[in-house]
Amino acid sequence: MRPFLTEHINELKTAIYLSFIYLNIDTDIVKILMILMAVDTGTGVLKSWKLGKKFDFKVLFFGLCSKLVILLIPMVVALVSKGISKGYDMSPVLDVVLKVLVVSEGLSSISNLYVFKTGKDVKNIDVVTMLLSALRKWMLSFVESIMRKLES
């Protein structure tokens, strides 16, 4: 599986980038998000080293996969937006989602650097789960409001 991934990494990056363009997602913010994800991964490795944890490629690979999954969040919101575009402007929701993800990655990187500097571990805040919960609630209320309109 690894040779396949290394052979096709550029195609994968291109497909992801083109998907963001098709979905009218601000690619500048996505670039910033991806850079912050890379910084977070690097600072996470430094944090683990500082805390004396054994380096594990499986944990690193899982972390990288979770970063890719995080990129699906704005894509899903944008797809929903495209699907219901007539009469509903979801661009503010997409904008908030992207900004929350950028701040989340920045916060994680800063926390990792704090641990690296002080040697004291800090409790991480799972901003992505909070975001997913808020999006789910918002989408449920959106569906309920449409259903009420249909019932009237």
What does this structure look like?
This protein has 6 helices and no strands. The chain is mainly α and 152 residues long. The chain has one domain. The termini are far apart. 14% of the residues are buried. The chain is globular and about 60 Å long. The model has no long low-confidence stretch (mean pLDDT 88).
Runs with pLDDT <50, length 5+? Answer: none
Sheet with the most strands, sense and barrel status: none
List the helices and strands in order. Answer: HHHHHH
Give the tally of β-strands.
Answer: 0
Tally of contiguous helical segments: 6
What spatial form do the alpha-carbon principal axes imply? globular
State the domain count.
1
Radius of gyration: 18 Å
Distance between the termini: 54 Å
Q: What structural class do the secondary elements suggest?
A: mainly alpha
Report mean pLDDT, rounded to a whole number.
88
Percent of residues in β-strands: under 5%
The share of residues in helices is over 70%
Topology:
Elements: H1 2-7, H2 9-22, H3 27-50, H4 57-83, H5 91-118, H6 127-151
Summarize the structure.
By secondary structure, the protein is mainly α. Helices cover 82% and strands 0% of the residues.
Supply database-style keywords.
single chain, 152 residues, mainly alpha, 6 helices, 82% helix
